[in-house]
Write a structure and sequence with these properties.
The complex is a heterotrimer of chains A (109), B (234) and C (120). Chain A is mainly α and 109 residues long. Chain A has helices at residues 2-26, 30-55, 60-88, 95-108. Chain A has one domain (2-108). Chain B has 234 residues and is mainly alpha-helical. Chain B starts with a helix and ends with a helix. By secondary structure, chain C is mostly helical. Chain C has one domain: Orthogonal Bundle (Helix Hairpins). Chain C has helices at residues 3-24, 28-49, 69-72, 76-107. The longest helix of chain C has 32 residues, at 76-107. The chains are: A mainly alpha (109), B mainly alpha (234), C mainly alpha (120). Chains in contact: A-B, B-C. Chains B and C meet through helix 1, helix 2, helix 3, helix 4 and helix 7 of B and helix 1 and helix 4 of C.
Chain lengths: 109, 234, 120
């Protein structure tokens, strides 16, 4: 029973990791790519570790330390990358952003 | 290369690889040399980790060659990217620097304050416990270089003294060869690990000169990779 | 399917993807990524060849005692070769990236179509 829950959790984590990779390929802009890569892959990592904890309950403390490490380092690195990208790049223009800007101008006028 | 030619080549290679993959059957017993190594390393060298025993004693000459390759790469990157450390202040015309030095934000600084000691301890642990568990010199050196990279990211005005690092790296290389020559004089061959007492199996101070070589390798590889990272920054 | 065949096939597929990337991409950084992919695939192939059925890693600790090591451990030699190969792959990637930086400084572009004038 615990193995079934663990396997399902690892599968969900793998789905999140796959969607992180897919997002990094298909997103139009560097900023959205960084966002897709970090958030989804951190969650995927954590879910895989939780799934392994269901399989081997006596490894829980070590897996918790690994998850803590992953949670500490992934956001910091993506923040540094995004800040570096902000210095050189401009965000991509999107039709939705233009429409919302036009709406705000119309409502202020 | 044009698309058509690339597709033909990939298809051809794909057929060859498919033949290899399909006709490969998993082994069910160790080959002779591997069985001999797995038997000899714990018995004669006193090292529980068979792979580190092979890498640092039986095939230590290959490891020395790899150390030489890393040294050449550090020299090559230094040649290609110019002398970054010394000429930075003069604003050399050949090397364009599109970004000014911006201080890092609070997130990266606080994160680095917590993480850098952890990563440094982890790197030392991996390098020193090469003979007892997975790890060894190269792995510890790579983790040490990532710690230096984090430090460079968090404090952009942190200048690595390349002269000191090069001196430490060359000293570590010299000590590795000195341990090897001591192996010729005191034990049965170059880079034999029986120059130091074998000790009790599984203890920390055991397996002869393997922990010493591991630590020296870790220091050397860490310094080299840090030098490479610093050159890329310039 | 046996584990070694799965890892072997994955490694060979990665080698194929890496070679395709090196041949068809025009951006220098993507060519370097293709080279690294090919290297990683070949590391997987090396390690997969050393796997013996139902055995464990060749490290003697609580899980694997000294007496049963020759009958219960996988082949250690391909793993040792893979350690060397990974480090050298890292070194070659560093040199390639340094070349990419110099090429960019020479022509201000990252496409290899700009560097065809030395062909004869």
């Amino acid at each position: 029973m615990a193995e079934l829950i663990g396997s399902i959790t690892i599968l969900i984590g793998a789905v999140f990791l796959f969607s992180a990779g897919l997002g990094m390929l298909r997103m139009p802009d560097a900023f959205t790519r960084i966002q897709a890569g970090t958030k989804a892959s951190t969650l995927g990592n954590t879910l895989v570790l939780v799934g392994i904890a269901f399989y081997h309950p006596d490894w829980s403390l070590k897996l918790l330390i690994i998850a803590y490490f992953v949670l500490m380092t992934n956001p910091i690195s993506s923040h540094a990358l995004a800040r570096a990208a902000n210095t050189i790049l401009q965000p991509a223009q999107s039709p939705a952003a233009d429409a919302s800007r036009a709406d705000r101008k119309r409502s202020e006028a | 290369m044009r698309r058509g030619a690339a597709i033909v080549l990939i298809a051809f290679l794909g057929v060859i690889f498919a033949t290899i993959a399909v006709s490969y059957s998993q082994r069910s017993s160790l080959p002779e040399l591997a069985a001999a190594y797995v038997d000899l390393v714990p018995r004669e060298l006193g090292a529980p980790n068979v792979i580190t025993g092979i890498l640092l004693t039986y095939r230590a000459f290959d490891t020395l060659g790899e150390v030489a390759v890393l040294f050449m790469v550090a020299a090559g990157v230094g040649l290609l990217l110019g002398a970054g450390g010394e000429e930075r202040d003069e604003g050399q015309a050949g090397i364009r620097r599109p970004l000014k030095e911006t201080p890092s934000t609070e997130i990266v600084q606080n994160g680095a304050d917590i993480l850098v000691p952890l990563i440094a301890i982890f790197a030392a642990y991996i390098a020193m416990h090469g003979h007892l568990g997975p790890g060894g010199g190269f792995q510890g050196g790579a983790v040490m270089a990532s710690c230096v990279l984090l430090l460079l990211l968090a404090k952009p005005d942190y200048r690595i003294k390349l002269a000191h690092l090069s001196f430490i790296e060359s000293l570590a290389g010299l000590l590795i060869v000195a341990v090897g020559i001591a192996g010729i004089i005191l034990a049965s061959g170059f880079l034999d690990n029986r120059v130091l007492p074998l000790g009790e199996f599984g203890a920390f101070f055991s397996a002869g000169a393997i922990p010493v070589l591991s630590v020296l390798l870790g220091v050397k590889v860490g310094c080299e990779l840090s030098v490479i990272i610093e050159r890329f920054r310039a | 399917m046996p584990i070694a065949s799965i890892v072997l096939s994955t490694g060979l597929i990665l080698v194929l993807i890496g070679i395709w990337g090196m041949l068809t991409q025009r951006n220098i950084l993507r060519i370097i990524v293709g080279f690294t992919l090919m290297g990683t695939g070949s590391h997987l192939v090396i390690v997969a060849i050393g796997y013996v059925s139902n055995r464990t890693a060749p490290i003697i600790d609580g899980g694997l005692s000294l007496a049963e090591a020759p009958t219960r451990s996988v082949d250690p030699i391909p793993s040792a070769l893979a350690v060397t190969a990974i480090v050298i792959g890292l070194a070659v990637t560093a040199v390639m990236l340094a070349y990419a930086i110099r090429l960019y400084q020479a022509k201000q572009t990252l496409s290899i179509d700009a560097f065809t004038d030395s062909k004869w």
